[in-house]
Design brief:
The protein is of the alpha/beta class. It has helices at about 20-30, 45-50, 60-65, 100-110, 120-130, 155-180, 195-200, 215-230, 265-275, 300-320, 340, 355-360, and strands at about 5-10, 35-40, 55-60, 85-90, 95, 110-120, 135-140, 180-185, 205-210, 235-240, 250, 265, 285-290, 325-330, 330-335. It contains 12 helices and 15 strands. The structure holds 6-O-phosphono-beta-D-fructofuranose (F6P). 6-O-phosphono-beta-D-fructofuranose binds near residues 14, 78, 144, 188 and 240.
């Protein structure tokens, strides 16, 4: 039997619902050819760089039924990568090493002809650099934050919105029972997509997002209005990257070895404190949804989008369209060069229909 060509698949960055559906789609599409086999690298590129290597064969049996499982069967990491591999210096401090040349040599040794890198902006920046070094790479975008500009949507986002919306629904019943202001914080980094969608779908009263810095007095005025109108409780959705006018994003310094990202999360407590200090007298409680938004099964929409991305990614390998990332432009799945894909982020525009809708529903954005 002739030797098959190998495509290596990996998942990098934070996990998100739908990753397994992408992996399954790549494997199923590759199985329709006679000459390709799929292998996976565990924990992003670490599986190739580690000694011994951690590489798994991905056949149809291995991916059977994984489309509705959250997380990633390949594992993932937000630390390091081939260009910034964490190394301990002699004095005990941590530095980083460029292991990209070694990676390329090992991939050649493993007989890898193409790589499909499933990951967010950080991962696709790595894809571009490896492509520049001559690697045949295809990218698949993923993030619950929906902040990549070259694709209408990323899979995982709608699942996160669904979880956040169901959480608003739950908070509303307990808020009504106790006449409280419930403040719910959602993820999204510098983008307010999850927050605004959940606020609209869940019927929230206030939604503060990074794109529109808020004034606490305006938030309080709106809450008072809602109580005076007889609603008797209120729901406030706070994006983790929200900030007051003239203020800063609430973030913790990066502390994990090899992970340079500042950690967001917890701003809702500060927001509640500001409400109290500015004179809000209603009882309030804070819920930080955190990683609940990234766990569990992907909703049907995300499974479909992830499957479309997986099939397209393998077809790009067949077409040798390396250096490109798959993207969704309604109603088609297309591909865009990495350089275009990583050029800028996707934030909510102040004059977008989504913002107009929120205002039309009397959701205060605090401005
Ligand atoms: O980018 C996805 C995301 O879930 C952000 O919304 C969030 O700020 C971050 O990742 C959390 O990262 P970690 O899993 O490293 O805590």
């Amino acid at each position: 039997m002739a030797k098959k060509k190998r495509v290596l698949v990996l998942t990098g960055g934070g996990d998100c619902p739908g990753l397994n559906a992408v992996i399954r789609a790549i494997v199923k599409r590759a199985a329709q050819t006679d000459d390709w086999e799929v292998i996976g690298s565990m924990q992003s590129f670490d599986g190739v760089l580690n000694e011994p290597t951690e590489i798994v064969v991905l056949d149809e049996k291995k991916v059977d039924g994984i489309h509705f499982r959250g997380g990633t069967i390949l594992g993932t990491t937000t630390k390091g990568g081939p260009f910034a591999w964490p190394v301990k210096n002699k004095d005990g401090s941590w530095g980083s090493a460029d292991r990209s040349e070694e990676l390329l040599r090992k991939l050649q040794f493993l007989g890898v002809e193409a790589v499909i890198n499933i990951g967010g902006d950080g991962s696709q920046k790595i894809s571009q650099r490896l492509f520049e070094l001559g690697l045949n790479v295809i990218g698949v975008p993923k993030t619950i934050d929906n902040d990549l500009s070259s694709t209408d949507y990323t899979f995982g986002f709608q699942t996160a919105v669904q979880i956040a919306t169901e959480s608003v629904d739950k908070l509303a019943t307990t808020a009504a029972s106790h006449s409280r202001v419930m403040i719910m914080e959602v993820m999204g980094r510098e983008a307010g997509w999850i927050a605004l969608h959940a606020a609209i779908a869940g019927g929230a009263d206030v939604c503060v997002i990074p794109e529109i810095p808020y004034e606490i007095a305006k938030v309080i005025a709106h809450l008072r209005k809602r109580y005076q109108e007889g609603r008797g409780y209120a729901i406030v959705v706070v994006a983790e990257g929200a900030m007051p006018k003239g203020g800063f994003v609430y973030a913790h310094e990066a502390t994990e070895i090899g992970n340079a990202n500042k950690r967001l999360g917890g701003v809702a407590f500060q927001f509640e404190q500001s409400l109290k200090e500015a004179g809000m007298s209603f009882d309030s409680r804070v819920t930080v949804l955190g990683h609940l938004q990234r766990g569990g099964v992907p909703i049907a929409y995300d499974r479909v989008l992830a499957s479309q991305f997986g099939v397209k990614a393998f077809e790009l390998v067949l077409d040798k369209k390396f250096g490109e990332m798959v993207a969704y432009r309604h109603p088609n799945v297309i591909s865009v060069p990495f350089l275009e894909a990583i050029e800028k982020y996707n934030y909510i525009s102040k004059d977008s229909d989504l913002i107009r809708t929120a205002r039309g529903l009397d959701i205060s954005l605090g401005d």
